[in-house]
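Archive entry. Fields below.
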Amino acid sequence: MTKVLMKGNEAIAEAAIKAGANNYFCYPITPQTEVAEYLAKRMPEVGGVFLQGESELAVANMIFGAAATGKRVFTTSSSPGISLMQEAISYMAGAELPCVIVNIMRGGPGLGGILPAQSDYFQSVKGGGHGDYRLLVLAPSSVQEAVDLMILSFDLADKYRNPVMMIGDGMIGQMMEPVEFPDKIESPDLPPKDWAITGAKGRKPQVVRSLFLDPYKLENSSWHLHEKYELMKKNEVRFEKYKVTDKNEIIIISYGTMARICQTAIDAVEAEGISVGLFRPISLFPFPQDEIYAEAIKKNIKEVLVIEMSTGQMVEDVERAVVGKKKVSFFGRTGGVVPSPEEVITQIKDMIRKKSKSKKKA
Amino acid sequence: MNNNSKTLFARPEAMTDVVSHYCPGCTHGIIHRLAAEAIDSLGIREKTVGVAPVGCSVLAYNYFNCDFLEAPHGRAPAIATGFKRLRPDMMVFTYQGDGDLISIGMSEIMHAANRGEKLTAIFVNNAIYGMTGGQMAPTTLQGQITSTCPAGRDLNETGHPIRMTELLSGLVTPMYLERVSVHSPQHIIQAKKAIRKAFQYQMDNKGFSLIEVLSTCPTNWGQTPNESTDWLEGNMLPYYPLGCFKDSFAEEDK
Amino acid sequence: MLTKKHPQKWNSPTVKKPINLIVGGYGSGKSEVSVNLARHLVLDETFEARPISILDLDIVNPYFRSREASAELEKLGILPINPEGAQFYADLPIILPQIRGAIQSAQGTLICDVGGDDVGARVLSSLATSFDEATYDMYLVLNANRPFTSDLAGCLKTISEIEFSSRLKFTGIISNTHLMDDTNEDVVMQGISLSEAVCKKTGVELLFVSAEQTILDKINFETIDIPVLPLNRSLLKPWE
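PREDICTED_STRUCTURE:
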């Protein structure tokens, strides 16, 4: 295990190969095109399949077809491209096909911009396409974590027979950091892929489909999917805490690279005697609802501050978690504008000042 | 059955023993059977996977005795591409109607054909949307009445019906493109040959084939089965000429 | 923060031609090297080929480009040439009319920060008629910790890919091996030995080695006869 310096996009690509996905269907879009350029070189080296499709719509359907083989499949895109993929994602969720989709988010809506944003949170965690389904959504905050979560994503997709989405803002895809890859990947015990389409040899024909014309059968299928999502909520909640102590006056909830900016700000205010903790959700679905509640209700916490590179999306899930027990505030920049640590520091200090003022009044 | 008896006609092994949902006089059943016979004659049932469209043949997987994938509307060629690229050892065919293949799925079929995906596309053209109840298709003929062109298709508003096989034959890559019909026994025999050849080319790893099959829709055309075959012959054949538009291996075969 | 004047333990790098193309794989550190080289030359009182301009030719990557340091460089008297307005943020293949002009009538010294890999270097091909051998040098920024330039074979492949797509020939190597914050003196030394091997094989010069000052301080340059460019990082991540 030696460290190499990689762009997030390249590291994600290599991690997929390490996890056993030796095929890649893609369509170019900034800021994630390096995944395609990297794999155009790497796939032939590992004897894999590389194909640039005619659109994200086609590409997502290609991975639908590819997933039906039972092999590990993935694709990557950025916000507008991910919107085009929603059709196949909904079908794959309905047909219970495992796959991994990476969204290196840029500013939206519409064509938006090409700089980092986190404005596809709702689309990722609330469904995105039509129908009663969820994706398991993971959000790394460093290139190394992108590698680790990418490998985990393939295991989780196989475990739950469900599409897994990894979302990173443009910064995750574009920044360069030293990473290391595990020499050998040990997957946990995963269910057999007896649903795969392999030809009706020595068995009855199998069909991969999401069509149930009988409403009672469709309802059963939807409740079956729902049970899987409940199981994910039980087993797959992931998060990280930074400087969370009983001295904290404020707890910040932030994910992805935004959380790293918050860390810098937290270190800075700590030096001035202001204690702030960071709770970073890693799994966005399932959302660490109970864990955030437990932190928020602690006596020392005066206010919960949600910081996102959007106009406020995850904040709704935080409010749901906190159920009105504490004040939840929001700070965000969007459209490709990345908040600086100084802006976060200003937010924190303003909150502290207001709190002490209102105390005096009382 | 004694030893001297000979089976002259039987259900193909590649078809299941169920009653289909197709309307009386609909030719989907014939086309299914031709595909199944081709699969049987090449002995490939156990390594064949079909891709069903959205349209009347959405439930095709119930009638074929082989593995199947059910595609989103128009995307069968993309689904088939993903599958076939990962399993080049398997035989993959798409079964698509005119709304599915030409309208919503124009991009997917053109690009799959142009990449030379080693697939067999069976394209059923009945000049109308069947499943959704008889709306205008890209193949609906001039003046033909449908629920979304109740005064008859107006070419000034909607352009001319698309001749898909001709359009595809403008591409360099596809290997085999033929238009056939199933409105009479002679035509069915020709259609069977074409479908079998398309599967044979896939077995030989030769590239992309598409067989366009002119088909009837008595229910949505508002005709009896017999009237509908006559209508096909009198109206569709003049606009959609039968024949082979491209066969890159025709010389080799001889 | 600029490099403090301190007893020089090494020779400073210089450039010899009016046009200096800084080329390399993605993430080799081209932009950081370009910015630091321009800054070094403008502060080097013995360097006469002025004015010094810096040209951002990175049309493939919208993030971490030398244009982000424009304001700071301008204050030092370096002339930055970038797309303006909304195009500043674009990844459109924008070749400004003044770029060809800047190259053709190069006065003083021009540092060109070119996009990564053969893909990024392709832009040079479109400008190829503007170059002649007497006026340009093309330098490969080499980072031995990048996947495709981690050994001699990989470096030679990258060199031939970039030479093919740019239609220009390399004249030198810049050894800029690093691992971001994990860089240490061993990393830098390994990079130098790979760079020397590439130079030996291809017959081009090793222009200089670059690294952050704190790491350079740990290396004994008395035994190494290569010019050294200390780096002050200008292209930082938002939390740095």
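CURATOR_NOTE: Chain B has a mean pLDDT of 96.
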